[in-house]
Write a structure and sequence with these properties.
about 375 residues, mainly beta, five-stranded mixed β-sheet, five-stranded antiparallel β-sheet, binds the ligand Nc1nc2c(c(=O)[nH]1)N[C@H]1C(S)=C(S)[C@@H](COP(=O)(O)O)O[C@H]1N2, binds molybdenum atom
Length: about 375
Amino acid sequence: MELSGKSPTIRTHGEDPLNLETPPHSLRESFITPVERFFVRSHGTMPKVDPGGYTLTISGLVESSLDLTLKELKKRFPKKEMTAALHCAGNRRAELMQVRQIPGETAWGVGAIGNARWTGISLRDVLLEAGVDGDAAHVAFTGLDEVPLEDSVTRFGGSIPLEKALAGDVLLAYEMNGETLPRAHGYPLRVVAAGYIGARSVKWLSEIEVRGEPSENYFHARDYRLYPADADPGEADPAEGEPLGDLYVNCAICRPAEGELVSGDPVKVAGYATTGGGRGIERVEVSADGGETWSAADLTPGEDSGSWVFWEARVEPGPERREVHLLARARDTSGGVQPASPRQAWNPKGYVNNAYHRVNIRRTAA
Ligand SMILES: Nc1nc2c(c(=O)[nH]1)N[C@H]1C(S)=C(S)[C@@H](COP(=O)(O)O)O[C@H]1N2
Ligand SMILES: [Mo]
């Protein structure tokens, strides 16, 4: 498989389809996650696209459909750069699985996320060039990969509301961290929808369709929905599930990692925080006493609102405490807060867990 180019420390959840997770310490090593440590989430085949034969089509509720080669789209539209986190809706599912089982899904830790510098063209510019009809309300993307379902094969796809598509923070990216977009990340072109669940950032993009209704693709219409806690997602009417898009405020502790043996008092705690909707991270706090008292963290934001925020805090559990449960929580600029426990965040597909993050550490004798 296409593991070449990835760090040997990356955690493999599956090779076909390729699913790789960044270990917690690696996440916190650099503000921009290098490609070699960047997580991969794939549902099906990994297309090998010949750039010469590649075209992107833009059709549907537009005044003029467009058919663009890679060369044409680079020439015709201004180059745009953006720092944005890709955040998988399944990130932190492992904690939900400890509450109740979630069959058939990957047990992601805190590393189904990465922050990259993306270069490409703005989806807004492309849509304005095609001319959007008055009835348009959603923009659907389809990739070139084939995903086996129970008794059929489908392409991966999904849609975002037109308003988001025109907001200026959705890129059609052909470079990642200054390099040509790697094959595992969607070569030659992918969507990067800042602040939305990773599933809307369709890789190996081949079609954009402007529509009146959301995408009918399996991964939009059935999957990536927040079903009620007592629903069976295999049987449920999709209408029972809320479609996912905009991310909620979230944070995770990366250092120390779960089970780590730590010396010294105070203990330095570091991690990342994210949110959606163009909001910012207002505050991150850490507790070493089960949530009785909290210490505010120092924040390092990115240039763009879709970037993650790095944070670092110090807590003093007292030298005599040999086992410490660290908790972290964030608040965003719209007052969005996290649920205290994964029990509150639990849903049958295990999506968007944004509960307070807990890490259990052991400490050496003082
Ligand atoms: N075509 C296609 N696009 C896709 C996917 C996929 O399987 N096929 N996975 C999605 C999901 S669920 C996530 S989280 C991100 C992961 O992006 P990455 O593999 O570049 O980290 O890609 C999204 N885009
Ligand atoms: Mo995802």
